[in-house]
Input
Amino acid sequence: MTCKTAAPPRRLRYPLVLAVLLAALLAAGLAGLVLGAVRIPPGDVLRILTGDAPPGPYPTIVLDVRLPRVLLGAVVGAGLAVIGTVLQALVRNPLADPFLLGVSSGASTGAVMVLVLGVGGGMATTVSMPLAAFAGSLGALIAVYALARRGGTMTTGRLVLAGVAVQYILSALTSLVLVTSAQAEHLRSIMFWTLGGLGQARWHTLWLPALVLLAGLALLLTLARPLDLLLVGEEGATVLGLDTGRFRAAVFVLASLVTGVLVAASGSIGFVGLMVPHAVRMVVGASHRALLPVVALAGAVFVVLADLLARTVAGSQEIPVGVVTALAGGPFFLWLLRRTTRTEGITG
Output
């Protein structure tokens, strides 16, 4: 008796996973348009989306407030999940995540500098904030990688400690800039933004994160094979023809760019890039060509639902979406940390 009969279900499994996640994203998006401080009937939402808008304030709420917010949540969730997946491959550590490695904190520091100093306005701020966030995220990632890597090895303990140290330093610097700012009237809104939130989403702020995500995902898909090679170890990847040092440097820059743009749009939303890749790997495996599209969809669903919970769980009081993801991600991180410390001593 052969096992050939098991092949067709495996071939059907991947398209099925994509279809289920796409349906879940559409359902989560519709829920995000219906629910909120003002509940809008689903039928009215569908009429508005199809161009048959009823009279009243509903079209403005759906099209100008909630739809950009849902789309930004999908973009940010997809991007953070993809970058978390890539960072875990680059440093060969399951605890890698833009938030835990201090990359998001670096991006927040750069963006807050622009907000407080008031560099530019309008379109200038739309571009200068992501640029400053990119510089901050890249600097933080380089610092963490340099601190955690010693003698050609990188352990889980050193990576976590380096990430926490850099994160605390950057968070302290951000707080110092905020409390010493002359713009006291903006302090609360900026502090709320640093905790992660999608309330500032508007159509004119959506195009840059979406463009960077699509370009970054397309480029990373072309790099799927080198990312897979890193999973076999540095020596093995080098033997197979990969210049690991140059490749890591290039992908670090790309990861920092995507993270910086996303954080500039939404603030720091943690643990998405930690939880989602692990959950998806259990379903589709570790091959990045198959993994990245599914991770993007799953991350989009997760953040859209987290944002929906953040603006409905406390009634009219909205809480930062970063608080919701942290409440979910904190216990997961502790479980994963306990699991990975048993195999400490990862070559990188």
In short: The radius of gyration is 21 Å.
